[in-house]
Amino acid sequence: MKKYQNKLNKLDKELNYLPLHEQVIAINNIITNLENGKILQKSPNSLGFLPDSLDIMIEKTARSEKAQEANNLLNNFRSFLSREYGIWSLPNLETAKLIKQEYGVKSSLEIMAGNAYWSKALSEVGIKAIASDSFAWAKSSTTGEAPIFETENLDAISAIKKHPEVDLIICSWAPNFGEISLIFIVSLIISQFYYLLVKNLEQQILLLFGKKQELRLIKRLIRVFKALISLMKRCLK
């Protein structure tokens, strides 16, 4: 059992508070699945206690310091997952099925895939999934030693050019990693140019998992770029 998990389970026993216990059970289940290379059945509920709920836990347990420590651990679960497993979102079959049904996806390309958890999830619901990553990050991180899905050694731009046939491009990336965010934005712009102008296609889906402010920036850039491509097409007729 990981140090983080040991600490959280110890606090759970000491505080003996049902709403906390339910969240600890959920975390233990997530970790067990990840350790066994399995994809979650469904998306987990939100973790951690909002101020009012935290006050109630403190009142019920009469252990203010311990309650706040437990809540801090719950709120830092995402950070724990990134350090231990190299993932920044939690792929699950429920969401994968929804993606397939809502967008009619038959094939996908995951760029900057890391350990390719999302590709594994999409594959398990019947999508022809392709994962790609340059693995530059794996040189300095032990989380890159055990990908759970076959992954092509390609950077994002090369992968997009190699696989123009896919319905979906997906990426879940680490926030605030400097140059990596810029590379990702450039990759998306190039993919739009490649699909819309060179291949003359207009129905590819981009599915992004990341920080809200970065997503807003990317959406604005793509809107501008699509408008420019539309203008270029009219001029070329």
Structure description:
The chain has two domains: 3-85, no CATH class; 93-236, Rossmann fold (3-Layer(aba) Sandwich). It is elongated and about 75 Å long. The chain has 237 residues and is an alpha/beta fold. Helix 9 (179-198) runs parallel beside helix 10 (212-236). It has ten helices and five strands; from the N terminus they run H-H-H-H-H-H-E-H-E-E-H-E-H-E-H. The mean pLDDT is 81. It is 57% helix and 10% strand.
Secondary structure: elements and pairs:
Elements: H1 3-15, H2 18-35, H3 51-61, H4 64-75, H5 77-85, H6 93-103, E1 107-110, H7 117-124, E2 128-133, E3 151-153, H8 156-162, E4 168-172, H9 179-198, E5 205-209, H10 212-236
Parallel strand pairs: 1-2, 1-4, 2-3, 4-5
What key phrases describe this protein's structure?
237 residues; alpha/beta; Rossmann fold; 2 domains; 10 helices
In CATH terms, the superfamily of the largest domain is Vaccinia Virus protein VP39
Give a short account of the largest sheet: 5 strands, parallel
Task: Tell me how many strands there are.
Answer: 5
Q: What is the total domain count?
A: 2
